[in-house]
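Annex B, item 7. Sequence and structure tokens for protein A, then protein B.
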Amino acid sequence: MLALKILHTKEFMAKLLAGDVFDNFLLEEAIIETYNTFSIDGHIHKEFYQNDIESPNATENSYLFSSWSDMKGICFNLIKGKNTPLGFRFVLHLKPENALTAIEPDNNNSTPSNDYCLNIKFRDGAVTVTSAVSIKIFTLDKTADSLWDSYIKKFFSENNIDFTEEY
């Protein structure tokens, strides 16, 4: 597990809510505190799309959670305004196909072995990002954690997201 403090909140928020940097993620949960507390459960209700010709494509429909690219506009609309939000928390998961190419390229399976998550929290003017891996089998091996943490640091650096590690 890795804990990062984002150094430039405004630039990070622009990349998170208005850019495409995090479009390879899915949203499990969003809690946004402004004049009310808004809670979004990102679990997809597949039965909602029965007999709907405008339902998400087959790949999108196979996800457990909604795509961040579909949900970030809703979150942005809840956050924007003249007042800074009191706080928010987003739980994001790397899309499985990206996990297979970026984190587990040697996996011959069509689904990743693990679930790779980011917890993004804003409180008191500061953004912290925590990485986590949900391992699907019991193991004492921490290789997946190390690979994910290294990937996140590289991903942030490549996208000009400045951070310091929190201990």
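Protein B:
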Amino acid sequence: MLAIEDSPAGRFLDRLGGQLPRPRAVVIASAHFMAPQPVVGAAPHPATIHDFRGFPEPLYRIDYPAPGDPGLARAVAELLGDAGLPATLRLDQGLDHGAWVPLRRMYPDASLPVVPVSVDPGDAAHHLAIGRALAPLREDGVLVIGSGGFVHNLGDLEWTDREAPVPAWAAAFSGWMRERLAAGDTGALLDWERLAPHARRAHPTVEHFMPLFVALGAAGPQASVRQLHASAEFGSLALDAFAFA
């Protein structure tokens, strides 16, 4: 619903595209594009995937007609392969809602080429390595985005109250993560499942958290971190955003 409803996170995304230097293309790792090994979308005209059920009809009519960039997709696959992370190209991969929902608000004209990259249910170190392999793209004017969720436990949401207060367990997890990100404590971040309070309650499955490590890795080993946004909906659904440079 972030695609069509007014919310603090939506208004933040509406401003964000204009606040960033305009890239020549976007590479996006989304929680909703999963594969056991890295896959790179190489469609010249990626379809808008409506990969959800039970939502209002206007969502299913949305089209985000951003072009793809097969040449950039091949370059992404080569960078991953050179880093020991063999990747395959998928010529018919569209843009899932983890990609097109934020991009539609950031870049509503849909003019920037978009290349999707998969995540998997693996560990944070693997996704940090994916990001570090993609770091050279920053010198070529490519924006690398990780699209997921800072706290994502749908079973614990207060579905009837969008303004419900953030529960203590979610606040503790988010606070720990923000502190470790601000400190540049990569070692602790990679061990988040053991060290962070309420880690597996915050993320019963990890796919919504792994894009964060792709974005962190893409900034290189000396990444600086800046928090851009923090809000929550339905109690524990944390929608933090960070810039890594």
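Comment on protein B: The first strand starts at residue 25 and ends at 34.
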